[in-house]
Write a structure and sequence with these properties.
CATH topology: STM4215-like
Structural class: alpha+beta
Strand order of the largest sheet: 1-2-5-7-6
Number of helices: 5
Protein name: Pvc16 N-terminal domain-containing protein
CATH class: Alpha Beta
CATH architecture: 2-Layer Sandwich
Number of strands: 8
Radius of gyration: 43 Å
Organism: Streptomyces venezuelae (strain ATCC 10712 / CBS 650.69 / DSM 40230 / JCM 4526 / NBRC 13096 / PD 04745)
Order of helices and strands: HEHEEEEHHEHEE
Distance between the termini: 113 Å
C-alpha cells in the first residue's frame, strides 16, 4: 500500500507539470550527502512517519467475486494508516526552490483526496477514498525540525503532507461453489453381502428380581394371614 501511495503522489505532481519543466520527483531521504549530489532541480517527497488510525478499525468483512459473479474469497476489513511526508525542493537559488514549493502546494491543496485515476494496485481495487491533507501532519508525528536534525541536513522550507490510506485486509479462499445437484444411487440387494451374515442382537429371558431380605434376614415372603369367617372368634 505504501508504494502505491508514493506512485499516486508522483503522478499527481507530474500532472502539475514538474517533469515537463525538467524537475525530478524523488522519494529519497534528504541527507546531507544526498543533497550535495543534486545537480538538477529536485522535489523530494520523503516519508518519515507511519501510524495506524485505531478509530477507523472496523469489523466484518467483504467478499471477492470472480468474472461470473461467484464468491471466491472473503476479506477482512481494511485498516487505515496515516502516512506523513516531508516535501522539500532543491534548486540553484532559494527563489527557485520557493517557486517549486509554491507549485507543489498549489497542486496539493486543490484536492482533498488522491484522484481515483491515479490509484493503482490494492488502492484501486478497494475503491475507497484516500484522503490527502497538505495543511499539516499527524498529532503524534515528529516536528519538521526534528526530522531535519535526524537526517543530518540543514533546515529547509518544507511542506508537511499527510495521506490516510487503507491497507487491504487478508483474503481467505472459500470453497468451490456447488454446481451439481444431489445424486442418489441404489445398490442391488445381491451386492450388499450375505443377509444371513448380518449380526442380530439376541435377548435372554429376564427373570423377576428376588424379594429383598426382611428384618428377620429371610428372603421368603411371609404367608398371607388366614381369613376369618363371620361369627368366628379370634383365639
Amino acid at each position: 500500500m505504501i508504494h502505491e501511495v508514493d506512485e499516486a503522489l508522483r503522478r499527481l505532481l507530474v500532472e502539475s507539470g514538474l517533469e515537463t519543466s525538467g524537475v525530478e520527483v524523488v522519494f529519497d531521504a534528504p541527507t546531507r550527502d544526498w543533497a550535495a549530489r543534486r545537480s538538477a532541480p529536485t522535489v523530494c517527497v520523503f516519508l518519515y512517519d507511519i501510524r495506524e488510525d485505531h478509530a477507523r478499525r472496523g469489523s466484518g468483512g467483504g467478499e471477492v467475486y470472480d468474472e461470473d459473479g461467484l464468491v471466491v474469497a472473503r476479506r477482512t476489513p481494511p485498516r487505515w494508516f496515516d502516512l506523513t511526508y516531508l516535501i522539500a525542493a532543491w534548486a540553484g537559488r532559494p527563489q527557485d526552490e520557493h517557486r517549486l514549493l509554491s507549485q507543489v502546494l498549489g497542486t496539493l491543496v486543490s484536492t482533498d483526496a488522491l484522484p481515483p485515476h491515479l490509484l493503482t494496485g490494492t488502492l484501486a481495487d478497494l475503491g475507497l477514498t484516500v484522503a490527502l491533507d497538505a495543511g499539516g501532519t499527524g498529532a503524534d508525528a515528529p516536528a519538521a525540525s526534528d526530522v531535519w536534525s535526524a537526517l543530518g541536513g540543514e533546515l529547509k522550507p518544507s511542506l508537511g503532507v499527510r495521506v490516510r490510506a487503507p491497507l487491504a485486509g487478508i483474503s481467505r479462499v472459500t470453497a468451490q461453489p456447488v454446481t451439481e445437484g444431489l445424486v442418489v444411487r441404489s445398490v442391488p440387494r445381491s451386492e450388499q453381502g450375505d443377509p444371513d451374515s448380518t449380526r442380530r442382537l439376541r435377548y435372554t429371558e429376564v427373570r423377576p428380581p428376588e424379594p429383598a431380605e426382611g428384618f428377620g434376614g429371610s428372603r421368603e415372603r411371609p404367608p398371607a394371614p388366614a381369613r376369618r369367617r363371620r361369627g368366628e372368634r379370634q383365639p
